Amino acid sequence: MEIAFDSQFGRGPVDHPPIAYASDGVWTRSAGQEPRQLYIVWQSSNCPLAWSPDGEWVYYGNVHQVLALQFDGDGKVKLWEGRERIMWLLQSCPQTGRLLFRAGGRLVLCEPEGLERTLYRGDFFTLDATLAASKAVLWKKEDLILLDWSEGLERTLISSCPSDFAISPDGKKIACAEGCLRLFLNPAFTLLSSAPEAAAPSFSPDSQSLVFLNGDYELWRVNIDGTGLTRLAWVTEPIVTVSERRGSYACKPGWSSDGRFLVAQLTHATHCPTNEDARIEHASVIIDFQESRAEVWPGYHHHAIFRPTTGSPNFRWTAADMGSPVEPQL
Fold first, then answer.
1. Are 207 and 301 in a shared domain?
2. 180 and 266 assigned to the same domain
3. Does residue 2 belong to any structural domain of this protein?
4. Which of 26, 93, 248, 316 gives 242 a disulfide partner, CB atoms 3.0 to 4.6 angstroms apart?
5. What is the pLDDT of residues 104-154, one digit of tens each?
């Protein structure tokens, strides 16, 4: 699998912060070191991940549990357990240390003290909780709903919106991808109309630009005013497009908290999945914008996210009395 980069980037190892990602379990990767497995997953899982605000733990949704896995040790703590299945939606709030996730048809908020609150019940598919410590955005039956649990308010932000969306860190912009790339400010406008396979938009930490995938084989960046459109990385070999194979491996690229680094997974498919000769390969790209360097990282790395690189409050969960997690069984 060959990947090319924009000419501004030199190729070589990138000295990046540690990355947590999902593959056949929960793994971390540090620059210049072999990947380390924190947890084994025997059953298929979407494996939602989040870092603790202090960067010492990786939070993981393990079917009916939320676990905290120690980055520099072997510690495992069960933070939450219930009957509902943990969905792939998991957020950690750096301002408060709260943990937000979907369990069945509930939106659940866990406090660092171990307290649990049900914020929402109903049929919703995806969420983004980057607006503020007390707000979340839910995608529900083609509408984006703003939920403010401190005020007990719920209102529609955008009607007839695709489920593939992102909220800017400053809480003032929403990007949606479905046949084009749209940016909702005041008023909304279309950033790119000729992007039929645009997917997985992700805002930079300063909210001034965003990256997205074309299909699952090209990585692009554009400023919020529509300028500076750049293809950062792409698969160079002949491919079968997402629309041709009727399926995508696209997942949102991950930014470091200072905006210096970016990690994104790209996919190379040679045939449709129904073809017995089908071959699908994955690799991630890690980009250092400050040093203008880029690295190819072979393999499948789902939900890859950087460890926090800026100072964060040192929140300590006190739910350790729930005991050790139930280990997966063959």
1. yes
2. yes
3. yes
4. 248
5. 888 888 877 777 888 888 776 666 665 455 777 888 878 888 888 878 888
Q: Which domain, by its residues, includes 212?
A: 1-17+163-312
Strand-pair category, 135-140 with 143-148: antiparallel
85 and 13 housed in the same domain: no
Q: How many domains does the chain have?
A: 2
Token pair for 195: 């992007």
Q: How many CB atoms lie within 10 A of CB 253?
A: 24
Q: Which of 141, 162, 183 is a domain's end point?
A: 162
Take residue 259 and report the two structure tokens written for it.
């905006």
CA distances from 231 to 144, 221, 234, 299 (A): 29, 6, 7, 22
Q: Edge to edge, what strands does the sheet with 106-110 contain?
A: 86-92, 99-103, 106-110, 116-121
169 in Cβ contact with 178 (< 8 Å): no
- Nearest residue to 39 (alpha-carbon basis) of 329, 330, 322, 327: 327
